[in-house]
Design goal:
The protein is mostly beta strands. It has helices at residues 29-34, 138-141, 187-191, 357-362, 453-457, and strands spanning 3-4, 14-15, 36-44, 54-59, 68-71, 75-82, 90-93, 117-123, 128-134, 147-153, 162-171, 199-202, 208-209, 212-214, 217-224, 231-236, 238-245, 248-255, 260-262, 267-274, 281-287, 293-304, 331-339, 347-350, 353-356, 367-369, 381-383, 387-395, 401-405, 410-413, 419-423, 425-428, 433-440, 444-450, 461-466. The structure holds CU-O-CU linkage and copper (II) ion. Residues 91, 93, 133, 135, 265, 404, 406, 447, 449, 451 line the site of CU-O-CU linkage.
Length: 467
């Protein structure tokens, strides 16, 4: 397989130092309360050094923002300080959170005005790999860099040599100036696959390199923070297991035998053993649309950790609520996705009135759920506390969509009645009908939307209410 060295913009080599992952020392409650995430404009060298720095929006001026570590079961507190010129808010993607802390501007909180603060405080019932990102005009704000990893540690660490948090993104930069393309409302992006970029980064670095040793075992916490890019990933010179999806441990580690697909919003925890020889380079490789493999992360092998590999891993400890009971008798609802370019949608309801697809396009609205563009006044479904809910998601568009439910994880219901792993984001390919089931045990108003963020902004957003 060909390993290409450059995309539209040349990749640069970069050896990441140990300082990249910020481990917070044990803090008192009062100290924790003073921890602030300041959203602000900053400069970052995203493109190769021959290009100017890129103006980004980042938490604490970084993109990704700092990796936030916490212990399972702990209380988590962060103050958002908005130093941006526009309102913002933070969503803690995948956390079974108090609704008031979910960060959705216009649904669970008012957007935080420039110069203002908002104190987020919530419990962390589940261990796993989560992330935080802006949820006010997210299709612009996430594309500008307002996101970071939230790692909730199990009480006991699995037996590994080291851990790497890898946040993948896909930036659209002007190829001359290396500045972020600010045409967020481009109709082509809204109506097709979303805003795809021209510079892939991991932790803000194109062509990230991490030195490893043969037979070392790493835990890779992968997070797809891209607006629209589906990362199809492969291991080269690495062998491993999928341990968790969207933060939630699998019952049994699943050997990685083919590609790992990571849709926007999704996470995967892999345990990988370095099987390449000393002097070789292992890769986390990315399959581009034109069928070429690129090095997303290169792992030069510089030494030997041990003469033999470790035995296969034990599963990660289960999180508290893992089962989805009562699926057979659950109340069912349907979510039909329509619209987009080359779709069949003739018209839809938008802001209370029927509109032709052509008029929708004029307004930059291209997608509908159940015939309505954007969030409706009434929820898709109103569930009683503890009720099991099934939602059949039917993709009648010609694009894939990554459907994210806030506040609770779901399981996919397969045709044979079997249940898939717990997830919070499901990739639904064109033409597919897929069904999810979840227990409505987190009261509040929760978004259900496409995580191709331009799609969400142009119609693909609904919500559920749990009372
Ligand atoms: Cu990660 Cu509503 O989003
Ligand atoms: Cu979509």
């Amino acid at each position: 397989m060909g390993m290409c060295a450059s995309m539209n913009i040349n990749r640069r080599s970069f050896v990441m130092g140990a300082g990249a992952a910020l481990t917070l020392p044990a803090m008192t409650r009062a100290e924790a309360a003073r921890q602030t995430l300041a959203a602000r404009v900053a400069q970052a060298q995203l493109a190769p050094e021959t290009y100017p720095a890129t103006e980004i929006w980042g938490f604490n001026g970084q993109a990704p923002g700092p990796v936030l570590y916490a212990q399972q079961g702990a209380r988590f507190e962060r103050r958002l300080l908005n130093n941006l010129p526009v309102p913002t808010s933070i969503h803690w993607h995948g956390v079974r959170i108090d609704n008031a802390m979910d960060g959705v501007a216009g649904l669970t909180q008012a957007p935080v005005a420039p110069g203002e603060v908002f104190d987020y405080a919530f419990n962390l019932p589940d261990a796993g790999t989560y992330w935080y990102h802006a949820h006010t005009n997210s299709y612009e704000q996430v594309a500008r860099g307002l996101y970071g990893a939230l790692v909730v540690k199990e009480p006991e660490e699995p037996d590994i040599d080291r851990e790497e948090v890898l946040v993948l993104d896909d930036w659209r930069l002007n190829p001359e100036t290396a500045q972020i393309d600010s045409r967020f409302d481009a109709w082509h992006d809204l109506s097709h696959a979303g805003r795809l970029g021209n510079l892939l980064t991991t932790n803000g670095v194109p062509g990230l390199k991490l030195t490893v040793r043969r037979h070392e075992r790493l835990r890779l916490r992968l997070i797809n923070a891209a607006n629209a890019r589906i990362f199809v990933l492969s291991l080269i010179g690495l062998e491993g297991w999928t341990m968790a999806l969207d933060g939630m441990p699998l019952d049994r580690p699943a050997r990685v035998e083919s590609e790992v697909v990571l849709a926007p919003g999704q996470r995967v925890d892999l345990l990988v053993d370095v099987t390449a020889d000393e002097g070789e380079v292992s890769h986390l490789a990315y399959l581009s649309d034109d069928g070429e493999w690129w090095s997303q992360v290169a792992f030069p092998v510089t030494g030997v950790a041990s003469p033999t590999r470790r035995p296969p891993p034990e599963p990660l400890p289960a999180n508290p609520r893992q089962s989805v009971a009562g699926v057979e008798t659950a109340r069912k609802t349907k979510l039909v996705m329509e619209g987009g370019a080359m779709g069949r949608l003739q018209s839809a309801i938008y802001e209370g009135r029927r509109m032709s697809f052509r008029d929708m396009a004029e307004q930059g609205r291209f997608w509908a759920f159940n015939g309505t563009v954007g969030r409706t006044d009434t929820p898709l479904i109103e569930a009683g506390f503890g009720e099991t809910i099934r939602i059949e998601i039917q993709n009648e568009t010609v694009f894939p969509h990554a459907m994210h439910l806030h506040g609770m994880h779901f399981r996919e219901v397969h045709d044979d009645g079997g249940l898939g792993p717990l997830r919070d984001t499901l990739l639904v390919q064109r033409g597919e009908a897929r069904e999810i089931a979840f227990i409505a045990d987190n009261p509040g108003d929760w978004l259900l939307h496409c995580h191709m963020l331009a799609h969400a902004a142009s119609g693909m957003s609904t919500w559920v209410r749990i009372t």
